Amino acid sequence: MKPYDFDTPVNRFGTDSYKWAVAEGELPMWVADMDFKAAPEILEALQARLDHGVFGYAEIPDAWYQAYIGWWETRHGFRMQKEGLFFCTGVVPAISSMVRKLTTPNENVLIQSPVYNIFYNSILNNGCRVLESPLVYENGVYSVDFADLEAKLADPQTTLMILCNPHNPIGKIWDRETLAKIGELAARYHVTVISDEIHCDLTEPDCDYIPFASVSEDCRRVSATCVAPTKAFNLAGLQTAAVYVPDPVLRHKVWRGLNTDEVAEPNAFATAAAVAAFTKGAGWLDALRVYLSGNRRRVAEFLAHEVPFVRLAAGKATYLLWINLGELMGGSREIAAFLRKETGLYLSAGASYGAAGDRFLRMNIACPRATLEDGLARLKAGLIAYREQSAR
Questions:
Q1: How far are the Cα atoms of 17, 235, 316 from residue 43, in angstroms, in the given order?
Q2: Coil, strand, or helix at residue 387?
Q3: Rounded Cα gap, residues 112 and 233, in angstroms
Q4: pLDDT digits (tens, 9 = 90+) for 263-301
Q5: Could you tell me if residue 78 is left (phi over 0), alpha (psi between -120 and 50 degrees) or otherwise beta?
Q6: Which pLDDT score, from 0 to 100, does residue 172 have?
Q7: How far is it between the farthest Cα atoms of the chain?
Q8: What confidence tens digit (pLDDT) does each residue in 205-249 have?
Q9: Domains in the chain and their CATH numbers?
Q10: Of 20, 38, 8, residue with least CA distance to 230
Q11: Bridge partners of residue 363, in order along the sequence
């Protein structure tokens, strides 16, 4: 494996970084972007585009389609068809567009909480109702409550479901049987499934995810899948993603929605970055996954030995760890605020991902090992101080 450097810190202060817009001395480990430079192969492609010097309106080149198709077939064993693949400026814009196009006001959009908090925004800001089917948490492992899920999908007012695969923030890779059952229920009750698969390439080195649309005819027919190189290759600021819709009738509706909302045209760097990532970035990504796996193991060991009164939820995807607050009193917002005030460590409060997440904190470990060690030291000091304060 070609060596890549993930250990050298990159100073992101003063770069208009949303994540690093913090006070001096604070350590942000919340927003889901990485503190690593993009793959050298991607930087070379962007430099070549920059050197051209002309940044007019851009088309979607055939190389972009082939890059997505080739990557998913090679990495995930799923053959996409070109006619079902659309460029969009981001997964969130695509989801919001589909909520607008595929529902009418006041219909239910089902989500499985705790889940990515922006799903709530995409639903509520577009005139629909959030319908939660909370996941079951037992012994550190999450699963689907299928009785609850079926009852809520069966409601005629429920017309859309947003699936997170792999699931943010819990890091769960859904298995084929679970995905097949979701697809079967969605088809039975005429519910369209938007599958957000943006974290799909960030699995443990010995794991892979299963594309929802690949599982069954039901899954294929009812689904619109959102994918992108942005999480895996740290390209979120370039506004580049895709939607894949196998069914031709649903495809037309999604296509009309994306174009009506004007989120289907690339900037000058969007397609070049995606093509480079999916055609030249495999080695970098494989090295990254090994590095992130090491970070994950380090956190698990640290919590077990240094802060045993909290627990890490089981997860094998994303670079976001889901920390169960265990015996600590108080809610996640209170504890996250205490950590930031007392130690400068900025984590995400689990309550942001729905009421089912209020006993958790989300921690971003996509950073150099030295930064991780700094974060862990702050986490230990803050949690111990909070426990002592609560006891008093």
A1: 18, 11, 28
A2: helix
A3: 26
A4: 999 999 999 999 999 999 999 999 999 999 999 999 999
A5: beta
A6: 98
A7: 65
A8: 999 999 999 999 999 999 999 999 999 999 999 999 999 999 999
A9: 27-40+282-391 (3.90.1150.10), 54-280 (3.40.640.10)
A10: 38
A11: 321
Burial (CB < 10 A; 0-12, 13-18, 19+), residue 273, is buried
Nearest to 228 by CA among 120, 88, 348: 88
What DSSP character marks residue 199? T
CA 246 to chain CA mean position, Å: 22
- Rounded Cα–Cα distance for residues 275 and 283 (Å): 15
* Peptide bond connecting 28 to the previous residue in cis, omega within 30 degrees of 0: no
Q: Which residues of 154-176 are buried (b: 16+ CB within 10 A; e: fewer)?
A: eeeebbbbbbbbbbbbbbbbbee
SS3 340: helix
Which DSSP letter does residue 39 get? Answer: P
Encode 99-139 in three state secondary structure.
HHHHCCCCCEEEECCCCCCHHHHHHHCCCCEEEECCCEEEC
CB 97 within 8 A of CB 258: yes
CA 59-211-208 angle, to 5 degrees, is: 110
DSSP characters for 237-289? Answer: GG--EEEE--SHHHHHHHHHHHHHTT-----TTHHHHHHHHHHH-HHHHHHHH
Parallel, antiparallel or unpaired: strands 108-111 and 158-164: parallel
Nearest one of 263, 268, 261 to 58, comparing CA atoms: 268
Burial bucket for residue 139 (CB in 10 Å: 0-12, 13-18, 19+)? exposed
pTM: 0.97
Distance of CA 68 to the CA centre of its chain: 18
Helices (H), the chain: 40-52, 62-76, 91-102, 118-124, 146-153, 176-188, 217-222, 248-260, 270-280, 282-306, 332-343, 369-391
pLDDT tens profile 100-120: 999 999 999 999 999 999 999
Given a cut of 80, is residue 1 above it in pLDDT? no
